[in-house]
Amino acid sequence: MGHKIAVLGAGSWGSALANVLFENGHSVSVWTRDEKQKEEINNQHTNKKYLPQFSFPIEVTASTDLQAVVAGAEAVLFVVPTKAMREVARQVNQLLDHKVTVIHASKGLEEQTYKRISTILAEEIDSNRLNGIVALSGPSHAEEVVKKDLTTITAASKTPEAAQLTQELFINDYFRVYTNKDIVGVEIGAALKNIIAIGAGAIAGLGYGDNAKAGLVTRGLAEISRLGIELGADPLTFMGLSGVGDLIVTCTSPHSRNWRAGYQIGEGKDIDTILSEMGMVVEGISTTKAAFELATSHGIEMPITEAIYNVVYNDSDVKYVILNLMQREGKSE
Question: I want to staple 196 with a disulfide (CB 3.0 to 4.6 A). Which of 37, 48, 61, 220 is the partner?
Answer without folding.
Answer: 220
